[in-house]
Amino acid sequence: MPELHRTIVAPVVTEKSSAAYAARKEYAFRVLPEATKPQIKTAIETLFKVTVTDVRTLVVRAKRRTYGRFTGRRPSWKKAIVTLKEGDTIAVFEG
């Protein structure tokens, strides 16, 4: 069970993800970089007791940041966009 909790790092709640939820019932999650689509599907179904119909993944590239005279970068991370069966919802994204 612990690896299911580690697979899903956090929900991604932004204006863009909220618009996708409202229009297409798609939920966005930050996941481990080595997580596969079947692992993500199993983790979402087990943790939230819903039925997943589609999982899409993408890697968000690192961004360069300048702090005064120093240059650094934010790390890359993996995002999963999950579509649920009609009628299912996840409470994290509600109101």
Any idea how many domains?
1
Whole-angstrom Rg: 15 Å
Q: In angstroms, what separates the terminal alpha carbons?
A: 29 Å
Largest beta sheet, briefly? Answer: 4 strands, antiparallel
Whole-number mean pLDDT: 90
Query: What percent of the residues sit in helical stretches (DSSP H or I)?
Result: 25-40%
What is the CATH topology assignment? Answer: Alpha-Beta Plaits
Using the coordinates above, name the CATH class: Alpha Beta
Q: Structural class of the secondary elements?
A: alpha+beta
Oligomer: single chain
> So, the CATH homologous superfamily?
RRM (RNA recognition motif) domain
Which segments are poorly predicted (pLDDT under 50) over 5 or more consecutive residues? Answer: none
Describe the structure.
- With 95 residues, the protein is an alpha+beta fold.
- It has three helices and six strands.
- It has one domain: 2-Layer Sandwich (Alpha-Beta Plaits), CATH 3.30.70.330.
- The strands form two sheets. The chain has a four-stranded antiparallel sheet with strand order 1-2-6-3. Strands 4-5 form a two-stranded antiparallel ribbon.
- The longest helix is centred in the middle third of the chain and has 12 residues.
Short description:
With 95 residues, the chain is an alpha+beta fold. It is built from three helices and six strands, in the order αβαβαββββ.
Topology readout:
Elements: H1 2-7, E1 8-11, H2 15-24, E2 26-31, H3 37-48, E3 52-60, E4 64-67, E5 70-73, E6 77-84
Antiparallel strand pairs: 1-2, 2-6, 3-6, 4-5
